Amino acid sequence: MxxxxxxxxxxxxxxxxxxxxxxxxxxxxxxxxxxxxPIRHDQTAAEQAAAIFQEIERRLESVGSSKSRIAxxxxxxxxxxxxxxxxxxxxxxxxxxxxxxxxxxxxxLANKNLKVEMIVVADAS
Length: 125
Prior knowledge:
CATH class: Alpha Beta
Largest sheet: 6 strands, mixed
Structural class: alpha+beta
Order of helices and strands: EEEHEHEE
Protein name: Enamine deaminase RidA (YjgF/YER057c/UK114 family)
Shape: globular
Helix content: 10-25%
Organism: Hoeflea marina
């Protein structure tokens, strides 16, 4: 069974729905998360990461899950110079009893103001 929760906009601020905010497939939740729109140019990577972590928790709660049930997070950074500040926010947020697998990479992101984007896979059964 697949459940889709549709987005209202994407990273470019376009309102046409082209993807879901979260999809649950056979009890596994999949999502990509960016900071709330509009993405402000003056936000630090740490502020964007904190906003993303709040959104991850909100979305997981909407499907009956929580951050303790995250299996994997991929963190995309627009520049590796943000690695340390995002890691500091991560260390404050992550469930120390249930830390997920984590990967982090530098990529070209879709919005020039976007510094951080995350991909999450979690148990939602």
